Amino acid sequence: MSRAIDLQRRKQAVPDDFDLVARSYDRLVRRNPGYIEHLRLSADRLAIADRGRGARLLDLCCGTGLSTEALVRAYPEAEIVGLDASSGMLALARSKPALSQATFVLGDASDPAAADIGGPFDGVLMAYGIRNLPEPDVALGRISNLLKPGAPICFHEYSVKGNPRAVAIWTGVAWAVIIPNGLVTARHTRIFRYLWRSVLDFDSPSQFDARLRRAGFVDRYTLPVPGWQRGIVHSFLARRPR
Question: What is the rounded distance in angstroms from the CA atom of residue 114 to the CA atom of residue 143?
């Protein structure tokens, strides 16, 4: 089996693999310096006015709700919907008192409208999600249709291709920290080994910007995060045309 075919097959299994590690997921990622702060930074960068009063925001691939927490913190007056394909991760998100104002829906980000989440939305945050979709170009078109004209979207995502320093740091951290900690906290490493590979295979920042352009997004720009993940994690910001 070729590497590309194997990676596509693994993407299909991502929701089930996240079910297996759901109970330990927050504990693991909170060991990552800057993880929560970087999600908050990307949520802030959506720049929804007036603390989100009257706005509807969508958190795609919300997982256990850590990205939803970032949206709630940035826009406490907004109506927030979180969508994820892992029932185990969603169960944890729904159990968090801090997220009682959010609505969580089980569904596939490849075709989010099929989950009957409503819309259009005043803004979308998609953290660590687009990289896992088998057909990202198709998904981007569908996601764009969920936005109001002129509304912003932020893809908070790993992108290291074309940057040898970022590739080396990411590989070192994945094998020295993430995968061993996954074994300790979750007794399971398959999803974390996939994580390492999927990041290496994902678009470079310029390639993802071109993908967003082809999908029709405008006002595109890419911002770094601080700390050890500078050059590894980015806020990819764009808007649906007016």
Answer: 11
User: How far is the first Cα of the chain from the last one, in angstroms, to the nearest whole number?
Assistant: 44
Other C-beta atoms closer than 10 Å to the C-beta of 42 total 26
Query: How many domains, in total, are found in the chain?
Result: 1
Confidence check: pLDDT of 30 > 70: yes
Dump pLDDT digits (tens) for 86-121. 999 999 999 999 999 999 999 999 999 999 898 899
Token digits for 198? 């999927």
Which is it for strands 123-127 and 218-224: parallel, antiparallel or unpaired?
unpaired
Give me 35's structure tokens: 């993880």
Q: What values do phi and psi take at 194, rounded to 5?
A: -60, -40
pLDDT per residue as tens digits for the range 132-145: 999 999 999 999 99
* Crossing angle for the helix pair 3-29 and 87-94, to the nearest 10 degrees: 20
Provide the phi-psi class of 64: left if phi over 0, else alpha when psi is between -120 and 50, else beta: alpha
Q: Mean per-residue pLDDT for 57-69?
A: 97
Q: Whole domain around residue 232: which residue ranges?
A: 3-239
d(CA 49, CA 55): 9
Report how far Cα 134 is from the mean position of its chain's Cα atoms. Answer: 15
Task: Tell me the CA distances in angstroms from 239 to 39, 149, 218, 232, one per residue in order.
Answer: 19, 8, 5, 23
